[in-house]
Amino acid sequence: MTPRVPACLAALAALLAGCNAVPDKPNPAPTHKARPRAVASPAPRSPAERLADALRVVPPGDGRYTFGKDDKLLDTPFGPVLLRHGHAPDAGHPEGGVIAAYYLREQQGRFELARAYPEAAMSGSFGDLAKWSVSDKFATLPVLVVEGGGTWQGCTVSDTDLIELRPTGPASLASITTIFDDSGMEQDNPQSLTGSLTDIVRDRSFTVRYQGTRSFAERYVRRGDRFVLEGGESQIPGC
Asked: Both ends of the chain: CA-CA distance in Å?
């Protein structure tokens, strides 16, 4: 028969066992750092929004020209360039139209005006030029192609001007007579010629092919900062 343990001795044994127990270790605090919240980048602007923003930073002009709705915003290797076509509504015969060029800086979605060239190209008569465009065919940098002309004392002449948009500003590459008609002043042997620019090799050469009273071609080659006519003198007569 197992001897009975007095109640006081059993309580003492339980107390001693509790003193030797190892307490539970507290859970360690998390060591990872909270991740910063991602900042949403602004949504990209549409071409129309960028054009509207660019127009806000250019000067209004001196009032001589009215600018139409054919503005162009170019992204060039040296930054954005805004091109504007202006015409003079009440101009006389000798006055032409204009292409203005504004070199911009774009930072954090905003434009700043760097340099202004209000008469980067001028051509035509009666306050306007015939047409204009931007081409990447003639040079590595963008080239303005501006056409304009008029009639003087019965002789009609139209020129095509090539203007390169360089980091230092717009610069003339060449000016070519592409329309000639002296039938209004020459009664015996009038000439009518129309030329088109073909066989374009970027930064090297192009050819102007003429049709009309007679047919011939003239080749221009790039030498330094300009395209020059081989042979040095055009077959197009003067007025």
From this structure: 145
Q: Tokens standing for 92? A: 């006389």
Q: How many CB atoms lie within 10 A of CB 29?
A: 5
Cβ burial, residue 1 (10 Å; 0-12/13-18/19+): exposed
> What does pTM read for this prediction?
0.81
Instruction: Give pLDDT tens digits for 106-165.
Output: 988 899 999 999 999 999 999 999 999 999 999 999 999 999 999 999 999 999 999 999
Quick one: DSSP state of residue 125? B
Sign of the CA dihedral running 57, 63, 64, 69 = positive
Domain spans, the chain = 47-229
How far out from the chain centre does Cα 141 lie?
Answer: 10
Rounded distance between C-alpha atoms, residue 95 and residue 83, angstroms: 20
Query: Where do the H-state alpha helices sit in 60-186?
Result: none
